[in-house]
Amino acid sequence: MKIKLILMSLSLVALTSFGMANAQSKSDAKKQAKAEKAAEEIKKLDEMITGKDFNFTPTRVPGKSVSVQGDYTFEVTPDKIYSSMPYYGTMEGGKFKDRRVSPLEFEVSDFKYIKQGKPAEKEPALVNIKTKETSNGLSFDITLEIYADNSVFISITGGAMQASQFQGYIKPNKTKK
Question: What's the N-to-C CA distance of the chain in angstroms?
């Protein structure tokens, strides 16, 4: 009788241990699949940044209670940058051509693009863009901090305007057929 009781206890312990080990391996497999998917997303994001083929959409202005709404964009392609960003600030003199539109509304083909790093979980990739004179007569220094979750912090300085900062996200440019 004692032997039966001991054997049943051992069997129960073995089954419980096997079930826990099986659940642990399923959990590990899910974590592995999630990590692989995140690595693939970061790879796609890095390729988009390196290839200069993305579109930034602002959602808010940090430090102000301003939520950006509308069809504003900052589009980067290998051969040009197009911006239709809003401007919340003042300008002092300068050579801005048309004060009825945002000074951040421009197009430029002559620019220097430097990417540093790769987006990671807690560290952003940095992109520095220096434009020559744009279609609105101003030159800009632009810095983008691009995070692994596609969130972006952008800072734009230039001309006689106050620095502009936005938070938002990036996505690939739509392919033209």
Answer: 81
Whole-number pLDDT of residue 29: 82
Does the pTM of the predicted model rise above 0.85? no
What contacts 2, CB < 8 A, 6 or more positions away?
none
The predicted pLDDT at position 116 comes to 94
> Taking the domains of the chain in order of start, what are their residue ranges?
46-172
Contact residues for 120 (Cβ-Cβ < 8 A; gap 6+): 42, 148
Architecture of domain 46-172: Beta Barrel (2.40)
Q: Mean pLDDT per 10-residue run, the chain (177 residues)? A: 64 58 70 83 91 94 82 94 87 61 87 91 91 82 94 89 90 75
Determine the pLDDT at residue 177.
Answer: 43
Name 41's Cβ contacts closer than 8 Å, sequence gap at least 6: 148
Q: Give CA–CA dist 17/97, Å, rounded.
A: 75
Count of Cβ atoms closer than 10 Å to residue 132 Cβ: 11
The single-letter DSSP state of residue 91 is: B
CB atoms within 10 A of CB 76: 24
Phi-psi region of 137 (alpha: psi -120 to 50; beta: other; left: phi over 0): left
